[in-house]
Amino acid sequence: MNMLMRFNKKFLDKGSNVCQSIKNYASEASFETKPFRLHKLESGPSTHVSVTKEDALKYYKQLHTIRRMETAAGNLYKEKIVRGFCHLYSGQEACAVGMTAALRPQDSVITAYRAHGWTYLMGVTPLGVLAELTGRQSGNARGKGGSMHMYARNFYGGNGIVGAQVPLGAGIAFAQKYQNTGGVCLALYGDGAANQGQIFEVYNMSKLWDVPCIFICENNGYGMGTSAERASASTEYYTRGDYVPGIWVDGMDVLAVREATRFAIEHCTSGKGPLVMETFTYRYSGHSMSDPGTSYRTRDEIQEVRQTRDPLTSFKERILNANLVTADELKSIEADIRKEIDDAVKIAKSDKEIDLHELTTDVYALNIDKEIRNTTPFKPLPASNLGPAINV
Amino acid sequence: MILSKTNRISLHKVSNFFRLILPAESQNICRHVHFKYYPDTTSKIKGETKEMNMFQAINNALHLYMEKDETSIMFGEDVEFGGVFRCSMGLKDRFGSRIFNTPLCEQGIAGFGIGAAANDVTAIAEIQFADYIYPAFDQLVNEAAKYRYRSGDQFNCGKLTVRAPCGAVGHGGLYHSQSPEAFFAHAPGLRVVIPRGPIQAKGLLLSSIEVEDPTIFFEPKILYRTASEQVPVEYYKLPLEKAEIVREGTDITLIAWGTQVHVLLEVADMAKEKLGVSCEVIDLRSILPWDIETICKSVVKTGRAVVSHEAPLTQGFGAEIAATIQEECFLNLEAPVARVTGWDTPFPYIHEKHYLPDKYRCFFAVEDTIKY
C-alpha cells in the first residue's frame, strides 16, 4: 500500500493521472543487449532479454550492496583498519550478479582474489565479508583468510595465486560430472591470469573429458598495471580456448551476463563439455590498494566508463524507464543497504579478533603432536580443529 | 622374472627411455644397484601373505582401495596401461572410467586433483617422476597445503594423494633421479611419506589415501623391482605418525628413509663386524610431519647420530633432523650429528655412484662419529 502511494505520488507530481500510472506499472520488461560474440558456436543466446519486477529489484539490491560494501572496504583500508591486501570489485558488479542469477542450487563457483562480491552473492552477509577484511571473529573465515579467502556452500573461495584456481575449477566440475549432480562449475579468472599456462592445461583436459566447466574471463582491461593489449597477443579472450567454444558478453549489463550464463550452463549440461565466457568489464579502483589505478590509465578514461557504461546506473535507468520499478522503491532499497553496510562496518571495526590459540588450528586434519612446534616457549599452542568442513 | 607376458607387450609402447629403466628381458634391472636390499621379515601384520615386489604391493594397495571406495579416481600420465612403472596394472580393466590418462601437464593434474578432492572425490594422482612435480609445486604448496587453514576448516582437499617415483635408479640422470622431499617438507598442511619396501609401501599408501590431509607419496623407484617381500594380502594400514626402529642398537643412531634405509642396514652390519659397534637404524617413513620423539629418544640412548639421504646436503631434510637433535639432545651428544648425503650438485648421470651416499661413505661417517 505504502509502495503504491509513493508510486502514485510520483506520477501525480508529474501531472499524470493515477489510472495511467497503474497502466504503465509493468510486472515484466524486455530489453536488447549488445550482440554476443561467438567462437565455434553455431548460435548464441537471444539478445532480447526480459526481467520481472521482483528480479529487477533483487539484482539492483545485489549490485548496490556490492558497490556499497566495496566502498566501505576501501574506506576501512584507508583508515588502516583493513591491512594487507584488498582487491575491490567496483565496476565489475554486473558480472557476478548476472552469473549468480543464472546459477542453480547444484552449481559451484571458484574465483580468484577479487572475491568480496562473490562471497556475498553466494550467501555470506556483508558483515561476514567486512569482518574478514578487518580480521575479526565475525569474518567468514574467522579472520584467518583475509581479503582473498572467503568461502560458502558451493563457493570454493577466494584464491590468492593468479590463475591457480582455474585447474581447481576443472576438478570441481569433473567431480560434479562424476557424481552425476548435474551441476557445473564456474571457474573465474581475469584477463591478466588468462596468460597463465595452467589455464591452457585445463582447457585441454576439460575438452578432452567433456567436463562441465565454464571458464570465465572477467576482462576488466588491466592485469595489475598492464593493459590487456600490452599483455595479451590476442585480447579476444573468449576465443583463446581454441577448440573450446566461447562467448563474449557485455559484462556491464547484468541481464546480458545472466543470459550468457544460462546459455553456458545449458551448453555444459547438454554434454558438450566446457565453454569459455568473456565478460567485458572495467574496474574503477586500482588492482589492489597499493595501486592508485591512475598511473597506467587516465582519470578521464575512468570517468568516461562511469558515465557511459556503469553497471548500476545503466540498469537503474533501464528499469526506471520501463516503468518496472519506481525511483522511490530504489531509494528505499538503497537506504536499507546503507544501513546494513554501516552497521556491518561498525561491527567489523569493533568485533574481537580470534584468540591466539586459533593460530594453530586446522593445519592438519589430525596433528601428530599435541602442540604445534615452535610457536612460543612461554605458552605452547595446542593443535586443534574448528570444523566441520562444509565441502566434504 | 617379474613381468608377465602381457606386461612385456605393453612395455613396447613405452618410450626407449623407460625401457632402459625397465628392461623387459633382463634380470639385471639396473646397471648399478648401490645397496643390498634387506627384506622386512618382522612385519606384525597378520594373515595370508604373498611374495610381491614394491610395484606389485602398490598396485595391490590401489586395487584394494578402489574396490573399497567407489568415489575414488586415479589419474596421471599413461596410468591406463599400468604406468611406466606398472603400479596401476589392471586397474583400468577393473574400474573403467575411474582410471584415466591425463595429458602431460603436471600443474593441471595437481590443480584438477585438488578440485576433485575438494568436491568430495578421493583423488589419487600420479606424477610420472618426482622430477616432474615442480610445475605442480605452486598448486601443492599454495592451494593444497593451505586450503584447510585459510578457510578456517570450512574447506579442505584431504582426499588428495599424489604418488610420484623418486630417487636414484642407477642410470636416471638429472631428471629421473631426484628426491624432492625437502622442498615439500617446508609446507605445513602437506604430508610427505616415503616407504622403504613393499610391506611398508602398501600400508603407508593406504594410510596416505585415507588420511584427511593432502599427501605426497614418494616411491623410491629402484625398489619397485629390487625389493621383494612376503606382503600381507589383506587391506592394512601403517601409522604415518611413527618412525620405525628397523634395528635396535646401543652405540649410534642411523636415520634414513626409502632406499637409504637399506644402505644404513648394511652399514650397521659392517660397523658390527669391523668396529664392534651396535647401530640403531631408524626409518623415518613420514618426512612431514616427522616423528621427533622416536629419533630423539634413540639419540638420548646412543649419544650419536648419522642422518643420510640421497638429496643434496644443503637444506636437505637431514639438516632439519640434525638441528632438532642438537636442540633436544645437546647434553646427551658425544659427537656432532653427521650428515651423509648426495653432493651439492645436480643429480649426475655418469657419476651417479660417486654422488650417492653409499655404504662406504656412511660407514666412514659412523666410524668418525664413534671415534670423535
UniProtKB/TrEMBL annotation, chain A:
Pfam families: E1_dh. It comes from the Eukaryota. Its cofactor is thiamine diphosphate. Gene3D superfamilies: 3.40.50.970. GO terms for molecular function: pyruvate dehydrogenase (acetyl-transferring) activity. Residues 62-354 form the Dehydrogenase E1 component domain. Keywords: Oxidoreductase, Pyruvate, Thiamine pyrophosphate, Transit peptide. It catalyses: N(6)-[(R)-lipoyl]-L-lysyl-[protein] + pyruvate + H(+) = N(6)-[(R)-S(8)-acetyldihydrolipoyl]-L-lysyl-[protein] + CO2. SUPFAM superfamilies: Thiamin diphosphate-binding fold (THDP-binding). Transmembrane segments: none annotated. PANTHER family: PYRUVATE DEHYDROGENASE E1 COMPONENT SUBUNIT ALPHA (PTHR11516:SF60), PYRUVATE DEHYDROGENASE E1 COMPONENT, ALPHA SUBUNIT BACTERIAL AND ORGANELLAR (PTHR11516). The pyruvate dehydrogenase complex catalyzes the overall conversion of pyruvate to acetyl-CoA and CO(2). This is Pyruvate dehydrogenase E1 component subunit alpha. It comes from Trichogramma kaykai. The lineage of its organism: Eukaryota, Metazoa, Ecdysozoa, Arthropoda, Hexapoda.
Automatic annotation (TrEMBL), chain B:
Its cofactor is thiamine diphosphate. It is found in: Mitochondrion matrix. It is an enzyme of class 1 (oxidoreductase). It holds the Pfam family Transketolase_C. InterPro entries: THDP-binding, Transketo_C/PFOR_II, Transketolase-like_Pyr-bd, Transketolase_C. Residues 52-226 form the Transketolase-like pyrimidine-binding domain. Keywords: Mitochondrion, Oxidoreductase, Transit peptide. It catalyses: N(6)-[(R)-lipoyl]-L-lysyl-[protein] + 3-methyl-2-oxobutanoate + H(+) = N(6)-[(R)-S(8)-2-methylpropanoyldihydrolipoyl]-L-lysyl-[protein] + CO2. GO terms for molecular function: branched-chain 2-oxo acid dehydrogenase activity. Its main location: mitochondrion. One of its GO terms (cellular component) is mitochondrial matrix. The keyword Disulfide bond does not apply. Its EC number is 1.2.4.4. Heterotetramer of 2 alpha/BCKDHA and 2 beta chains/BCKDHB that forms the branched-chain alpha-keto acid decarboxylase (E1) component of the BCKD complex. The branched-chain alpha-ketoacid dehydrogenase is a large complex composed of three major building blocks E1, E2 and E3. It is organized around E2, a 24-meric cubic core composed of DBT, to which are associated 6 to 12 copies of E1, and approximately 6 copies of the dehydrogenase E3, a DLD dimer. Together with BCKDHA forms the heterotetrameric E1 subunit of the mitochondrial branched-chain alpha-ketoacid dehydrogenase (BCKD) complex. The BCKD complex catalyzes the multi-step oxidative decarboxylation of alpha-ketoacids derived from the branched-chain amino-acids valine, leucine and isoleucine producing CO2 and acyl-CoA which is subsequently utilized to produce energy. The E1 subunit catalyzes the first step with the decarboxylation of the alpha-ketoacid forming an enzyme-product intermediate. This is 2-oxoisovalerate dehydrogenase subunit beta, mitochondrial. It comes from Trichogramma kaykai.
